[in-house]
Amino acid sequence: MRYKSAKALSKSLIYLVLTLGAVTTILPFLWMILTSLKGGTEVILMPPRLFPSVWHFDNYSRAMEAAPLATYFVNTVVVTVTSTSLMLIVTTLAAFGFSRLKFPGRDVVFGILLATLMIPGEMLIITNFVTISRLGWMDTRAALIVPFMASVFYIYLLRQFFRKVPDTLYYAAKVDACSDWRYLWKVMVPINKQAMSTIAILNAIACWNAFLWPLMVTNSETKRVLSIGLVQFQTEAGTDYELLMAAASMLVLPIILMYLVMHKQIIKGVTQSGIKG
Amino acid sequence: MKKLLATLLTVCMLLSLAVFTGAAADTQPVTVEFWHAMSGGLQNALVALTDKFNAENGLGITINLTNQGGYTDLSTKLLGAIASDTLPDMAQVYNSWIASSLDVVIPLDDFIAADFDNYEDILPGYRAEGAEFGPTYTIAFNKSVQVFFYNKTKYDELNLTAPTTWQELHDVTKAYYEATGMAAFGYDDLFGMFLQYMLQNDAGFVADGQVVFNNEKGVEAMTFLLDLFANGYARTAGEDRYLSGPFNNGLVGGYIGSSAGAAYVKPDGFEYGAAAIPVGVKPAAMQAGTNLTMFAKDPAKQAAAWEYIKFLTSTESTVYWAMNTGYLPIRQSGFESDEFQAYMETSVVARACYAQTANMAFESAFPGAQEIRNKLSSEMEAAILEGKTAEQTITDMAAAAQEILDRQ
After folding, report:
1. Going along B17-172, which residue ranges are E strands?
2. Which residues in chain A are contacts of B71 at CB distance < 8 A?
3. Where are the domains positioned within chain A?
4. B12 pLDDT exceeds 80?
5. Cross-chain CB nearest to A236 (options B83, B260, B266)
6. Does A47 reach chain B within 8 Å, measured CB to CB?
């Protein structure tokens, strides 16, 4: 009897903590959506009001009018999908090379690559910009995709996973006359599916949210991405929070949908790789 | 490389002059790339003006507007474009952005002399800013000025009037604070507050690469300002970033902010007033906002860009721009036009701006100016939050600024 009540107590405690966690996670989203439906003055009201006194659904159409969000949306999807797929291929090949293949100078090259992680991204913006413009890639999709095809951090991450795969598997495959290429795609990749999906997700989120780089390398509206649309609601003297939140709600919607559809893989990937999402 | 560029630019200049001495009709059909940082309603007004120019110029000129985000984004992108030689034909700039790269900017004096409608009509403060580096490199465009916004309902209730001097500001905010228990004052731009105070008291800030505010006058200014915060009369914008938010909700009785922010002043349940900012030994109202500058090397593009600059800065355009954005007309004739006079009847902010047109001063641009501005803003915020003494604050700020200056 006592055992049962203790169990019930611990269960209710667990649910309480989980509920609190869920509320804390959902609140910012809820706040964003509720703010997107408020009027201009109500947004900054102190003490804040949870529900709008008048529901301003027109904020969404106003936000849509302020920037060609539909075009930006298509561009963002194209850029995110292409760059994530290409990044996965490059990262997989590089990680395999650095973990399994033996060639002279392998560790030195890898060390040099790792060293580049120490250069802050801000410092690279101008030099990368110069490179892209010398290549004649200004205002092209290539400028948005190619620089993100290789990521040292992801290569490093995946290399660690690849190294954990026992050598015996490799030698067994070799005995069966399996080529390196075949071994990579038939053994390594399936074993490390979770780690790869984590990398893909992290990269997709980073792509979706990127702002400064896409702004730097594009000029025409037909090439620009969603995050740039958000600037439309901010000026040097203030911000239209309700419109900004309306646009932001539309911007995060696909990410939330992606999560709902793929949440099993995401959770697995995150817990297995120890990377916080 | 620089020499080559200089020669090239000189050749371009001569060629452009040749185009000019002909007639405006020599302007060839060209597309001019214009980078700006105007978003939302400001962008709509710019697009409307530009569409009009594109449709009516009759010279085959097309202006291609490109929004480059906010000011910081635009300046970063210009920096990259200077480094990679991919500058647009013209852009909106703060003078400090081009201070270190004047060799890529086209001086405008010859254009002004050859073909410009009454340059003297542009407000003296703007002309002075444009010629800050000697030749005229920029022409005023979206200009704002600092304005004192206050809770008129509360002021009337407490029998207070908008302060005209810093001492009055102290007394008024003290009275307001004591009567309501609420902060009475704030300044959107903390560094601007200090600079403004110094400027009005004939005290210098930076001269010839040396900090010159590390003295009695600096300490006096800082003591006065920090006391306002320490006593609770003033507050910072903090997380709200702009005081218009707390002001609208009645959490602060008044603040000094850019006239360009008037669109965000939407008080909740009270009437607001706007007045000229307080003055010290002499009046000086800080003007802000960017200017137009030209980078085009091709004479045909230069001529086309000039046509557009003339159009944007014409009395008619500047009045349209001011009435639709909250910025100010850049021309005296703009302020005096019937249209703007009628508009001022309805806009208390426009009246407060107009009252300051004779006193406008600009923040000088020098290499490192922007970095110093950012650094000292956070130094001041820290001083307010940590309750540092004025002497200590000035010493720290001077050291931080000098370090930046020495690096240039």
Report:
1. 30-36, 61-67, 90-93, 138-140, 144-151
2. 236
3. 36-273
4. no
5. B260
6. no
The DSSP bridge partners found for residue B292 are B92, B139
| pLDDT surpasses 70 at B115 | yes
Give Cα A80 to chain centroid, integer Å: 9
Contacts of A46 in chain B (CB under 8 A): 246, 249, 251
- Chain A nearest C-alpha distance from B261 (Å): 5
pLDDT in tens, A28-44: 999 999 999 998 778 87
Look up tokens 């009027």; give the residue: A39
Has domain A36-273 been given CATH number 1.10.3720.10? yes
Above 90 in pLDDT, residue B175? Answer: yes
pLDDT of the residue at B6: 54
Mean pLDDT value across chain A: 88
Q: How far apart are alpha carbons B93 and B36 in whole angstroms? A: 8
Compute the half-sphere exposure of residue A92: CA atoms within 13 Å on the CB side of its CA. 25
Q: Tokens 């950012």 — which residue?
A: B374
CB atoms within 10 A of CB A33: 14
Strand ranges in B246-323 using DSSP code E only, listed in sequence order: 254-258, 272-275, 285-288, 291-294
Residue among B37, B40, B251 whose CB faces A46 most closely:
B251
Q: What is the CA radius of gyration of chain B?
A: 22
Look at the block and give the residue holding tokens 């407490």: B158
User: Which of B205, B203, B229, B231 has the alpha carbon at shortest distance from B217?
Assistant: B203
DSSP A103-169: -TTHHHHHHHHHHGGGS-HHHHHHHHHHHHHHTT-TTSHHHHHGGGS--HHHHHHHHHHHHHS-HHH
Range B335-341 average pLDDT: 95
Question: Which chain B residues are closer than 8 Å to A231 by Cβ?
Answer: 39, 67, 69-70, 73
| Confidence bin at A156 (pLDDT 50/70/90) | very high
What value does the mean pLDDT take over residues A215-232?
88
Structural domains in chain B? 2-143+289-357 (3.40.190.10), 144-287+367-407 (3.40.190.10)
Q: Where are the alpha helices (DSSP H) in B264-389?
A: 299-312, 315-325, 332-336, 338-346, 348-354, 369-386
